[in-house]
Amino acid sequence: MRTTTFRIALLLLGCLAGTVRAKTLAPAEVTEVVKTIDDRQRNSGDYRSLAYLEQKEKDKTDTAREAIVYRRSADQKLMILFTKPKGEAGKGYLRLDKNLWSYDPTTGWRRNTSPTSAARRSSGPSTPGSSTRR
C-alpha cells in the first residue's frame, strides 16, 4: 500500500511539474493509471530501458547521468551501462547470480561485495563469470 501511495504521489507530482496543466484525474482514473504502472513493473521477461539519474548533494554541483539497463529474466542477469556524461560513458555494472561487478574502462572489472560477504571474499579470478562457487 505504501508503494502504491508513493507511485500516486510521483504521478501527481509529474503532472504538476509540467508547464501545461493537465486535467485533474478522478480517483477511479488514478487507480487505473496506478494499476497499469504496477502491471508494467511486474513485467516478466527480458527488457531494455533508458534511465536518467540525477544526483544532488548539498554544497556540490548537481550531476546527471544517462544509462541503458538490460535485464535477462530467465537467469536473473542485470547490466547497467552509463552512456552520458562523457566522463562516465562506458562505465557500468553487471549482476551475475549474487555477484555484482563494476566496470571502468580504465581499470577493468571489480567485484563489489556487501560488508557481510567481504569476510568470505576470495582473492580468486577478477573477471565476471570466471569465479567458482563455494
- pLDDT averaged over residues: 77
The helix count comes to: 2
Strand count, sense and barrel status of the largest sheet are: 6 strands, antiparallel
Structural class: alpha+beta
Q: Low-confidence stretches at least 5 residues in length (pLDDT < 50)?
A: 121-125
Q: Bin the strand percentage.
A: 25-35%
How many beta strands in the DSSP annotation? 6
The percent of residues in helical segments reads 10-25%
Shape: flat
Backbone CA Rg: 20 Å
Order of helices and strands: HHEEEEEE
Question: Span between N and C termini?
Answer: 39 Å
Element layout with pairings:
Layout: H1 2-17, H2 27-41, E1 47-55, E2 63-72, E3 77-84, E4 92-96, E5 99-104, E6 108-112
Antiparallel strand pairs: 1-2, 2-3, 3-4, 4-5, 5-6
Notes on the structure:
- The chain has 134 residues and is an alpha+beta fold.
- It has 2 domains: 2-41; 47-120.
- 23% of the residues lie in helices and 32% in strands.
- It has helices at 2-17, 27-41; strands at residues 47-55, 63-72, 77-84, 92-96, 99-104, 108-112.
- Strands 1-2-3-4-5-6 form a 6-stranded antiparallel sheet, with no helix packed on it.
- A hairpin with a 7-residue loop joins β3 (77-84) and β4.
Short description:
The protein is built from 2 helices and 6 strands. It is an alpha+beta fold and 134 residues long.
Keywords:
134 residues; alpha+beta
